[in-house]
Design a protein that fits this description.
691 residues, mainly alpha, 71% helix, 0% strand
Length: 691
Amino acid sequence: MATYAIFGAVAMGVLAHVPGPPSRRARTLLAAVPAGCVLVTAGTLLAVDTWLAAGGMLVLGFAVAYAAVGGPRLVGLATGLHLFYMLSCFPPYLPETLVSRLIGLTLGVALMAAGEVLVWPDPSPMRYEQRLADTMEHVARYLKSAADVLDGRPSLPERVNHLRQAAAEKAEALRPLHIPAAERPASAGRHDQAVTRAASALRFVWGLSTRLLPRPGTSPPHNPDAARLLCQQADALDHAARSLTVSEARPPSLDALDDAITAFEAARTQACDRLLSQGMGTEALHSSAVALGIARGTHSLVTAVRIAVRASVPPDLTPAGERPGPFWYAYEPAWRLWWVRFTRSLTPRSVYFQSALRIAAALAVARLIAGGLDLSHGFWTLLATLTLMRTSAADTRTALRPALIGTLCGALVAAFLLALVGPRPDVYAALLPLAMLVSFVVGPILGLAWMQGLFTIVIAILFSQVASAGWQLAETRFFDVLIGGLTGTVMGLLAWPRGGGGEMRRAVATSLLASSAAAREAVPVLIGAASSQETLPRARHVLFLAEASYAQFQTERHDPRMAGIDWQAALMTAQQMVEGAETLVERCRSGWPVPGHQAVASLEAVACRVEAECADLAEDMCKGRSSPPSRVDGVPKVLDSAGIPVANVGSSRQQLQLVDVLVWLTGLLDDLARIRVPDESASPTLAQTVA
């Protein structure tokens, strides 16, 4: 009972890294007790035979590691949960001690949960919702300043540039690269999915906001209708930000946003003929199209915020069936959200699947080796495999050397201590708290070698209380770590050795190809062509896998050859293709007027150019080369080169439809051109990538 109590505390307090404030961490630890009891029970019963124990390690090891797809809390618990099965699946085979083991496990985890809250609790980290709300407020301020410019009100250029730069910095801080993995809203729950969707919509709004005003040296168009709409969207962003951070604040109304968009579209239709008759052309319509895109992005953001704070949303925004919408999860039961998340990643192309299978196979092989060699402390072999194995073979090899050096030094100190003290359990009991304090505080600060060395001393002191041991225990510890580390290294070389970085090349390239195909196939829907029932779902699925591979890539040592691509910008561009195609298909179904076959054919040519750019980028990504960024013309030049006479398309609404789709397509071309990083020594900001 004492052994499992102390290992329960070590597993949940040292090996597990649960995110969130202290109270939430304590609840998570207590919620993990039933899973720990199942693992201890399975290990106790399967310890009767080496092959059975190894088979259980393969199955249960995969299940525990694959659970990481569920979000940061499950990721943090995985290593600690592995420990429970590893400890119990080794001889001696004592099923009659199962009750004592479970009591000890429960006691140790409960004490650890109490310690999280009562003993010097860590400060609560900054919530992702606070970061998101802060960015909303800065984007809202910039939108109001841009509205002043479009309305002809005096606004100092220095103030506009300052607000733009401040919003760009906040948007850059939302990138996953700058947020610890444990603090990202990545679970399958409704709240986290809604917050993630809100962040995506905010990036879309910010990307369009950077296109509102013309370049320095040119006069901005006078567009009071767009200015009024932008002010309304800025107020909605401020309101949404407050509802995320203040529990009493009510979220903004979707009806008000719908009314604002409807009124703006009516005013824009009335002004279209007048603008074109005055020879102002598409330049005057561009700001209106961008403002309308910002309004639709804000509508999506507010919808996601309402879902996150458990407010109602219209059922027609959450369709189910063959073509689920972006907010399909709003009214789904929790079990289905988790089921969808786990089944979507159950493919060899998922980094979650690859990592889980790699870890499970390595632990099963290590269990066979420990059983075949009849190692007296084979548990240490599996623990070394688990703690030293990384997602890529290169990172595993890098970790092995300092771990072995630290273990060797710790083993020498432990051997001297065991020889000096001898069989005195009372002395070891007195030394254990001090050794643990030094190991668990100093080790993470000084690095892996110190962690392994100090933990070796702790292990020696701990096991000397369980049974009498001599200096040979330290020798056994070193060779067990050596065998476990080599096992993990070999398995890492055999199973997806390039880790998340290698998979990310293929996943992002595939995502760009699938998303661009969905965008191209959405354009013919304007003239009544049937859209594919498979293109958009496939694009969403491969985008999910690409985002997962990028998240794992952030935890690995980066290959310098991959610095020529802004991978986050590539994922954002693919996401905008999917969302734009979904919006286009849905609007056409709701009775959008058709611009005409000739105009749509010209739009298809621009969409084909987007697809060709994606194909070139995908080829560069897969081959690891970096081509120079391509030049993208503005909307008027693209119109001229495509041969699209806007004034001759048809009615005002048809002309506006044409401009809206063209603004979306040229924006994609602009984003694609910014994915390639000209200077590999400097990573572009979010504002520069116009994500």
